[in-house]
Specification:
Blueprint lengths: L26 E6 L1 E3 L11 E3 H13 L3 E2 L2 H9 L8 E8 L2 H14 L3 E5 L23 H6 L5 E5 L12 H19 L5 E3 L7 H9 L4 E7 L11 E5 L6 H9 L13
Parallel strand pairs: 1-5, 1-10, 2-3, 4-5, 5-6, 6-7, 8-9, 9-10
Helix pairs in contact: 1-3
Length: 268
Amino acid sequence: MAEHPLGGLPPQGGPGPGPRPAPAPPVSILMYHQVGPFPEPASHRASYCHIRRFEAQMAYLHRLSYRVIGLGEAMAGLFQRGPLRGRSVVLTFDDGYQNFFEYALPVLARYGFPASVFVVSDRAGGTASWLEGSPAETRLMDAATLRKLSRHGVEVGAHSRTHPRLSRLGAAELADEVLNSKSALEDLLGQEVRYFCYPYGDYSPEVRDVVHSAEYAGALTCIRGAANTAENAFEVPRKAISYGDNLIGYFWKLHMKHARKNAGVGGP
């Protein structure tokens, strides 16, 4: 079996696929979902970021000269001893909402910031049915829109076929969700899909190993903390940005919230 590009097969008795990340300045992989002009939500607060706050957050990164880098560069720096200098930030957006294209993408383009969007392949062009009681703004990007993203420095990753809790699936269903989301998106986009993101942040060692065997280059969780606290390239933590995060909260998450926090890791 060929060696995996991020550090080899799972060691016997080890924590999972690949090595621990290299020592480096803290890398913040930020987790967003929807961006737009939302009223204050009664639930799913981690699924919303008001456009005014998003604009202020991106301006903050620009003014303070953060290195906003692509996920591939961050993963190479963490797991392949690539260069990671200064304060590095990766912007990720789960689920593939249409409002990403309408509201977030023009702001990212203003600053030349790259980003990664994780798409539920079978729901493209539909709605986020997993968000119970959510408003009509939950429409997801369709195939034509997804094909436009690469022109704007946006990488598309897989977020399963239907957004289930993967740890609750049988072996055949799990393989279907993980492998076929990758192949469907690659057929749609005409390019490799390299990264996976666990729906709800829900996974187990068995789920992680199926993702690894599907030849993804890595996977993101909803575990809180700096990416440097990852045990391997398939259990990478992120920092969730929620509706209530003003610039003080944003500063706190970027500068202080580096420790790994496993409790309450679920997300939309």
